[in-house]
Amino acid sequence: MVVSLILLWIGFCLLLFLIRTRRPKNFPPGPQPFPIFGNLLQLNLENPVIDLQKLSERYGKVFSLYFGGRPAVIITGVEAMREALVTKAVDFAGRPDGVLLSHLTQGKGIIMADYGPGWKEHRRFALTTLRNLGLGKQSMEERILGEVSHISAHLEKCAGQPIDPQTLFHNASCDIICSIMFGSRYEYDHKFFQAMIKMMADNSKIANGPWGMIYDTMPLLRYLPLPFQNALRDYHTIKMHVLDVVNEHRATHTPKEPRDLIDSYLDEVDKRGKDCAPFDDGQMLTMLLDLLFAGTDTTSNTIRSAVLYFMAYPDIQAKCQQEIDMVLEGKDEPCFEDRHHMPYTQAVIHESQRSASTLPLSVFHCTTKDTGLMGYDIPKGTLVIQNLSSALYEEKHWKSPHSFDPSNFLNEQGQFEKPPAFMPFSIGPRTCLGEGLARMELFLILVTLLRRFQFIWPEDAGEPDFTPVFGVTQAPKPYRMVVKLREIMT
User: Fold this and answer.
1) DSSP annotation string for 281-330
2) Are 420 and 397 in contact (CB under 8 A)?
3) Is 103 helix (H, G, I), strand (E, B) or coil?
4) pTM to 2 decimals?
5) Which of 41, 50, 73, 479 is deepest in the core (most CB within 10 A)?
């Protein structure tokens, strides 16, 4: 009797699953899902990007998968992305709930906040405040170049010795965003600073890695002591640290004289008075954490990728240095405007971004209403995943899509030219908030370092391995490098 009831229950669950996973009429096609797991077992959880590309070749530029019983639409290629994220931007501008990232942020802040008035106000506030704090101006350049001096000092001490640059570039990227948010930077050997950087790197691997996918797919496992619990714990630890910084600011804050992003937020709350919604402590903390996580991992991993390419292709590195030496002759430091006179170096930096594909699947979207895409019907609330890597490698849009080639960004006259398929920060209203800061950081940091140092692949390190480590932000595998001091032309 008991066995019969169990079998009946299992049969009922399977029937319910089959009903739930029956694709709606005119929904994008895709592979048949399995009970409980959906299509999870048909993906390489260590890095699903290659599998997604193969599925696209079979089912088209817009296809569907099931994560457990939840349907998701995968967008592949430039045309499909532009239709979804630009032409029908509002329809696809939502953020999903019920996934690890939304649980970490509780749907607050900017990155995982759903599309609506509160998100719009916070994004507008953040962009305005970044400009007020110097983004696009000389003061921000000085802030970035000041941090580069700390990188250079470390590299000078290590000249001639093989070193792992991962922590160094994470330190610098994190310190730049900390100086904007907190008004001060950390010393590189600060104990909590190092712990925080490690926690952020680990969380990036978990959130879009195998354990993050399992968390999103099988809710029943969320309370077990599995690695995604580390992400929840670490996020809370960093959040408490940022709360302490906010409380310190409250005690020393002078109204209308903002020193940094926290002071500016406190001023905004004061200006709004009692009815300050949607601006409150919870939103402020999550927004600060959004900027901290996004502003550290993406930039540092792109810099590490660029340095890897410099070492793998020394002729490209030498050509960049020749252009930099010529343009900066007689100058102590570069400025962001110098990029207009460095077409080849600009092309190499952008090719590093394209080849590294630091945000391979961007941040998951969600439809805000019943809509359509490339002839298919997509219901409101559908999870949407944009495969940014597919656009960055799409063959018809690039001269050399599958190799590192700066000519992808140079026209026949040798001038810098950015193809419309270049969208490493995504496109549309939810494009990366920190794109302007990241572009400035990448140029000033890489140009300064290339001018001062030569990057050399260690003789005993074998061949460079470009296989990425997948996560919310994709990173190159750990490697070691040797730096040699160059003579600066003045």
Assistant:
1) HHHHHHHHHHHHHHHHHHHHHHHHHHHHHHHH-HHHHHHHHHHHHHHTTT
2) yes
3) helix
4) 0.92
5) 73
**What are the chain's domains?**
21-485 (1.10.630.10)
Is 276 assigned a ligand-binding role in the annotation?
no
- Asked if 60 contacts 77 with a C-beta cutoff of 8 angstroms, the reply is no
Burial of 195 (0-12, 13-18, 19+ CB in 10 A): middle
Short-list 385, 430, 428, CA closest to 87: 428
**Tokens 């029937």 belong to residue:** 15
Q: Which residues lie below 8 Å from residue 236, measured CB to CB, with a gap of 6+? A: none
- Cβ atoms of 313 and 266 closer than 8 Å: no
* Count of positions (residues) in the chain: 490
300 within 8 A of 170, measured Cβ to Cβ = yes
Residues 190 and 152 sit within 8 Å (Cβ to Cβ): no
Q: Rounded to whole angstroms, how far apart are CA atoms 298 and 71?
A: 28
Q: In this structure, which amino acid lies at residue 298?
A: T
Q: Give the H/E segment covering residue 348.
A: helix 343-356
Measured between alpha carbons, how far is 80 from 65 in angstroms, rounded to an integer? 17
Task: pLDDT tens for the chain, 490 residues: list them.
Answer: 444 444 444 444 444 445 455 788 999 999 999 988 999 889 998 899 999 999 999 999 999 999 999 999 999 999 999 999 999 999 999 999 988 899 999 999 999 999 999 999 999 999 999 999 888 788 899 999 999 999 999 999 999 999 999 899 999 999 999 999 999 999 998 999 999 998 988 888 888 778 888 888 888 888 889 888 999 999 999 999 999 999 999 999 999 999 999 999 999 999 888 787 889 999 999 999 999 998 898 999 999 999 999 999 999 999 999 999 999 999 999 999 999 999 999 999 999 999 999 999 999 999 999 999 999 999 999 999 999 999 999 999 999 999 999 999 999 999 999 999 999 999 999 999 999 999 999 999 999 999 999 999 999 888 999 999 888 889 999 999 999 999 775 5
d(CA 187, CA 374) in angstroms, rounded, equals 51
CA pair distance 79, 372, nearest whole angstrom: 14
